């Protein structure tokens, strides 16, 4: 007869295994390649980490997140991406091109690996200029100067990247203090902001919202400066399923002081934890309920290049 393992030992072993699983660090690739405009918060100067990377390093130490910082698109492959629990993009332009920052672009197989990673169950978080990436009908360079098509909605005909993200950037007006309302304070990290934000930021205008969005922030356009905001309120942050994966986006994150704020840091950590499957959240689609005029876009400025 084989000796029996004491129940106490079995329980302890399972308990330690569970504790180990919970305590395992969340592995995140923070990808900041700028094939178009390069924002100061993601720029490497003399080989030093960017402003946002310094903030994330501190957040990672506090919340058990291991960040890998990269601008090298040539690394993208199925095996490379499989190392990470979630990807976080702060990018711009056509990432298959070298573009502004001079770092290697994503190869076509690498781009397919990205889409497959998310559809198969990976987590994806986008910040700010992530929506100013892979514009519909703008492949083949950085931020294309022929921007009039950005003022049209393409629906299912949009770029596969924009469809995965759930929306696409149009333009922004002058930086200003404006109001964004929190539509789901129960979503991880979004309760920190309270019912609304009134802060100075570079506010993006967006379009082609996926109908299954669970909207987290709504841009309240009334009284804003600039014709870019002459439109009804529209989503500014959201979460959605994509295949078996989880996608979250927040259009904020242009300014250093936004990155320094407790509310934005809480949002970033919460979105990452949700996208990686560490926390569950309600994903009931609410696009038409919280932003019924979302499909009405602003008119292009008269000087817009044809």
Automatic annotation (TrEMBL):
Lineage top rank: taxon: Bacteria
Offer one Pfam family short name for this entry.
Answer: ThuA
Query: Coiled-coil stretches, from where to where?
Result: none
Q: Where does the record place the ThuA-like domain? A: 27-275
Q: What keywords does the record list, in alphabetical order? A: Signal
Q: Which residues form the signal peptide?
A: 1-23
Q: Which InterPro entries match?
A: Class_I_gatase-like (IPR029062), ThuA-like (IPR029010)
Alphabetized PANTHER family for the sequence? GALACTOSE-BINDING DOMAIN-LIKE SUPERFAMILY PROTEIN, SECRETED GLYCOSYL HYDROLASE
The name under which this protein is listed is: Trehalose utilization
């Amino acid at each position: 007869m084989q000796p029996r393992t004491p129940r106490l030992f079995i329980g302890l072993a399972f308990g330690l295994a569970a504790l180990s699983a919970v305590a395992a660090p969340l592995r995140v690739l923070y990808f900041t390649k700028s094939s178009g405009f390069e924002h100061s918060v993601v720029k490497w100067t003399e080989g030093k980490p960017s402003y946002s990377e310094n903030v994330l390093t501190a957040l990672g130490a506090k919340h058990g997140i291991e960040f890998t910082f990269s601008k090298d698109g040539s690394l993208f492959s199925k095996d490379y991406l499989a190392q990470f629990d979630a990807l976080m993009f702060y990018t711009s332009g056509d990432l298959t091109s070298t573009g502004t920052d001079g770092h290697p672009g994503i190869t076509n197989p690498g781009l397919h690996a990205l889409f497959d990673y998310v559809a198969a169950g990976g987590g994806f978080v986008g910040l700010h200029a992530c929506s100013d990436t892979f514009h519909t009908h703008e492949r083949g360079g950085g931020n294309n100067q022929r921007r009039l098509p950005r003022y049209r909605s393409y629906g299912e005909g949009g770029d596969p990247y924009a469809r995965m993200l759930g929306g696409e950037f149009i333009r922004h007006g002058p930086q200003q203090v404006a109001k964004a309302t929190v539509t789901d304070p129960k979503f991880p990290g979004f309760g920190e902001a309270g019912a609304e934000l009134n802060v100075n930021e570079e506010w993006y205008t967006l379009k082609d919202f996926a109908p299954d969005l669970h909207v987290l922030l709504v841009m309240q356009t009334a009284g804003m400066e600039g014709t870019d905001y002459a439109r009804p309120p529209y989503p500014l942050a959201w979460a959605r399923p994509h295949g078996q994966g989880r996608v979250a986006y927040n259009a904020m994150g242009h300014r250093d002081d936004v990155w320094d704020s407790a509310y934005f840091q809480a949002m970033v950590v919460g979105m990452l934890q949700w996208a990686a499957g560490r926390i569950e959240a309600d994903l009931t689609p609410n696009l038409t309920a919280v932003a019924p005029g979302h499909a009405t876009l602003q008119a292009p400025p008269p000087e817009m290049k044809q």
